[in-house]
Records
---
Amino acid sequence: MKQVWKGLLITVITFIASTIASGGFAGTALAWETLGITTLGTVLIYLAQSFAFPSTSIIGELNLKDLAKGAFVTLGNFFSAYTASTVTTGHVDWKSLFISAGSVFAMYILKQLGTTVPPTQTK
């Protein structure tokens, strides 16, 4: 059940980051498609990395593994946004792409700082 809540949280984080990067709520069908593809791709990457590499840090701390996982999710967001832009519009707005990826990384790290680890995984 914890994975479901964390997945929902990363969905909200990705949606917010992608919305900020695009300059506001999407107004056209293609913009909504791009936002949806980006969010879905990022969430799938997040769930895969979370399943393969569970968190081992204590609340309020970050370790190298957390940073690597955040970078992996960020790359997933970057490639999802790139693919979504290419497929839906044929044009890539690089500035928006980097803003979205940077926002996802920052929000992922903030999420990690506030996530507790099950007692069996503490240091």
---
Amino acid sequence: MSYKRFDERLTQMQWQPQAGPSPQIVDSVIAERHPITIRGVEFTLAGAILGISIGVGLKGIYTPGAPWGPESGLTGLLVGGAAIGGAALSLVAAVVAMLRHREMPRLMQFASMNLLMIVMLLLS
């Protein structure tokens, strides 16, 4: 049965065994190729930049001599509070991305890169 359908498709495309490809065949092959696109790079990059910012803020909280380190007053309170808040929001975004990764693949890219950068900076 499939042999018959294959032959029917060949005759429909007007293909001859010794001839070159027909214009329909060439057009169908060219039409099937999708352009190569880089998807989601901006979300990955944004996650990395925000993760680096949060990681530097968190690392500076306990580094003596940092402008927002221990005993730095109001600056330390503001930058440290923003860094801790950003880390908490990053964890929430990662949990949401983990639970809904099929519906929100871009959030998964953003959250995973964000947490990776935070952890890398805290461990360095």
